[in-house]
Each structure stands twice: as C-alpha cells, then as structure tokens.
Amino acid sequence: MTGGSTTGDDGAKAPSSGPQEPREAWPLWEVFVRSSRGLSHVHAGSLHAPDAQMAVRNARDLYTRRNEGVSLWVVPATSIVTSDPDAKDQFFESPQGKDYRHATYYTKSEGVKHL
Amino acid sequence: MSEANASATRITPGNALRPEDIALLETKPADAVAQYALWLGDDALILAQRLGWWISRAPELEEDVALGNIALDQIGHARSFLTYAGRAWDKTEDDLAYFRREPEFRSVHLVEQPNGDFARTIARQFVVALYQWELYSRLVDSSDPTLAAIAAKAVKEVDYHRDHSIQWTLRLAQGTDESRRRMIAGLKLTWPYVEELFTDHPLVNELGDIAVRPSSLRSSFDEAVKLVLDEADLELPDVPGAIGGGRQGLHSEHLGYILAELQVLAREYPGASW
C-alpha cells in the first residue's frame, strides 16, 4: 500500500518516501450507555478510536445522538476479560435437576420472616 | 428595528427552535436583518455541503459519522437562518438554497475552500468552529429574538464542533512527522481566509445591537487560537490575507462547482420530494 489515498487528498501530496507501512487500525473500544439516572450503564456496541478521549467523543456521535443517554463509558476492548466461548458447556451448564441451587428447595424454618 | 423586535412572540431563548416555527412567524424581519441572516445561513450551508463530501471518505468510519454529524448540525443552522431571511421576501428556505445564483450567495471564502486532505479540513473546521462559537455566544444577546434563539441552539452544537477540531489539531500536530507536516500545511492554506471573517461591513452599522460586529470578535478568537497552537507546538501561519468579498457576493472559483452539485436536483426536478 502506497500513498495516502484514503484521505481524499487533492492538494498536499506527501513527498514520495518509498512504500509506506500499511496503516494500523485504531484500537477497539466497548461502549456503555446509561439511558437515564438510576439505571445502570448497558453495553451498546463498540467503535474504533485512536485514544480514550476520542473514543468518548466517537461514542457520543455514534450512540447518543437521539437522546439515548445521559452518561457514557468507554473501555478498551482488550481490558475486558471474557468467558471462553468454547467452554460454554462447562461454564453455563443447565441448572436443571439442581433445585438445591434455588432457595425454594429448602423448607422454611418456623418463625423465620423475610426469607 | 422595532419591527424586528416586535417579531417572534412565540420564540423565546431556551426554546428548542425549529425552522418550521420560524416559517410561521407573523411578522417579517426588516430587509437588513434578513441580509444578515443570509450571511450566517450561507456560511453554514456551504460548509455543510463541503463536509458532506467526507462521508465514506474519512480515515475511519467513526470520522465519517463525526464529520457527517457536524454537517447536519450546520444544515440545521442554515435552515433556520434561511427560513428567517426568506420571511422578508416571501421565499422559503428551499427557494434561497436552491434557486439563487452564485453572486447572490453571501458566504465567506473560507467555507468554499477545498477539503484537501483530512488535516486541511480539520484546519478549516478549527477556524470556522472557533469563529462561529465566538459569534453565536454573542448573538444570543441580539435584540432580535429570532436571531438570538437560533444562536442559542447553534452555540451548543458549535461548542462540540470546536472541541472536535481542537482534539484533532492537537493529535495531528503531535502525531507522526507526516501528520504534523500535513497539519502545518493545512493551517497555512486556511489562514489567508481568516481575515474576511472579522471584516466589518456597512450592513452591521445599520443593524446596531441586532448583529454582532465581526471585528469585535477578533481578539477573543486570537486568544483561543493561541491557546491551542501553543499546546500543539504550532506557529501561527505567516501568510497574507486573501481578498475576500463573499459578503458582497464576490466568490472564488470554487463556489460555482459547489452550487452546481448542491442545486442540480432541485433545478432539474423543481418541487421534487421523496
């Protein structure tokens, strides 16, 4: 890849300095939007931005232009530790047949309120 | 001017103002007020047309959206100013945007300037946004309630345009050698058109406290520019001012091409809608 053709450059041509490195993509950020006071931030999507400050601004442009939010969080996607999609079976095994995991399984002792 | 003062009973600062509300005003602005609204409306319209070019062409999708949003904000301002101006001559915003000829446009030369590369567009945005912010911050105190209300809505949006252009000016200036070189080149190409923004015009004398005197904005603009350029470690470009004349309808060769693209559909198919 040579030249800066992705910039729509029609004036300031770069002095030719040989082939250029392919442009690195901007890092990925995950965006969380709080839709109103009292609610939690909810994951809205992701975006690319060169740094944290620009990520908040891009998030504002992409996710809050139509009154969707009163607060924004952006988190570098690399900082989020996720569960392993391949370990789904072990990780999220169905609780079927394990009624003891629900409090309703136990008989409430006499005289216990508010359980 | 009392005629202009009496207008806009339904328009009060702080209300979200829509062009549709302005079109319903019962009183008409005086001719001089309408001329002034045309200045500001044409600046916003031509800038929006320029910025729209970037959609699908910016360095990243996110910047397509950012520049597209800024263009849409500017179209919103243009619609309000042109609707208000048109009230004086029984014309709609579309009549004024699509069916005026080049010498009838009152935009400054700065907004006609080519997009160039991303840095040149950012340099133009930097100047326009800082100027418009100073202007609208003062126009909210206009004795014309409609102009004041349009400015009150616009100033919040322009505040974001200012932030966007400053963030990018800092990043391009302090990024790579290549981005810095382009930012310096962009500022140098843009700076000749700064002077026209602050040039007074007989129309402003007629308008008294309805309009903002362009020359009165210069010192705060210069201070704001200096703050950013200092932080970016950039020099103020040392270039002579261009001739200007946009407020009299004298334009550079660029405007004709912009209008051809802007107006072709409305002229080819009058009354077209979708």
From TrEMBL, chain B:
<dbReference type="Pfam" id="PF05138">
    <property type="entry name" value="PaaA_PaaC"/>
</dbReference>
<dbReference type="InterPro" id="IPR007814">
    <property type="entry name" value="PaaA_PaaC"/>
</dbReference>
<protein>
    <submittedName>
        <fullName>Phenylacetate-CoA oxygenase subunit PaaC</fullName>
    </submittedName>
</protein>
<dbReference type="GO" id="GO:0010124">
    <property type="term" value="P:phenylacetate catabolic process"/>
</dbReference>
<dbReference type="InterPro" id="IPR012347">
    <property type="entry name" value="Ferritin-like"/>
</dbReference>
<dbReference type="InterPro" id="IPR052703">
    <property type="entry name" value="Aromatic_CoA_ox/epox"/>
</dbReference>
<dbReference type="GO" id="GO:0005829">
    <property type="term" value="C:cytosol"/>
</dbReference>
<dbReference type="InterPro" id="IPR011882">
    <property type="entry name" value="PaaC"/>
</dbReference>
<dbReference type="InterPro" id="IPR009078">
    <property type="entry name" value="Ferritin-like_SF"/>
</dbReference>
